[in-house]
Specification:
The two termini are about 25 Å apart. The longest helix is centred in the C-terminal third of the chain and has 21 residues. The chain is of the alpha+beta class. α2 crosses α4 and α3 packs across α4. A three-stranded antiparallel sheet has the order 1-2-3, with helices on one face. The protein has one domain: PAS domain (Beta-Lactamase, 2-Layer Sandwich). β1 and β2 form a beta hairpin.
């Protein structure tokens, strides 16, 4: 909260989309939710928006919390400060490409699907899984 300028009252109980930076591809969040709903942890680089309009990057580890019946009851994220060179050399250019694809479609859903396909294709051409790609940067 010190970094983003919001108070706890402004953020608690709110969806992450309230601080999602417009330069953050929606397909990354689609991937995140698919993995979380499948019971998997997710690591992702996320560009967040500050209250004053600035932004900040995090390397987030997002995981599910379960009740006694192994039902997902909530999610939590541990965010770290990413290396600047990873953001500038790999993530920002990749996310810019994904955004171009997302914005080129006539609907948000079609844009997200197209950018997800692009991301999956990029990772597949590297011959790795998403997690291996993220940790290789």
């Amino acid at each position: 909260m010190r970094v983003c300028g919001y108070s706890d009252k402004q953020l608690m109980g709110q969806p992450h989309s309230s601080i999602r930076h417009p330069d953050m591809p929606r397909c990354i969040f689609k991937l995140l939710w698919e993995k979380l709903n499948a019971g998997q942890d997710v690591f992702a680089y996320v560009n967040n928006r500050c209250l004053n309009g600035d932004h900040y990057w995090v390397f987030a580890h997002v995981t599910s919390s379960y009740d006694d019946n192994q039902q997902i009851v909530s999610y939590h994220s541990l965010s770290r400060c990413p290396k600047a060179e990873i953001i500038s050399n790999a993530i920002a250019p990749l996310y810019a490409q994904l955004l171009v694809v997302e914005k080129s479609k006539t609907s948000r859903k079609a844009g997200i699907e197209a950018s997800c396909l692009m991301l999956n294709d990029i990772i597949a051409k590297l011959g790795v899984e998403y997690e291996e790609f993220i940790f290789s940067l």
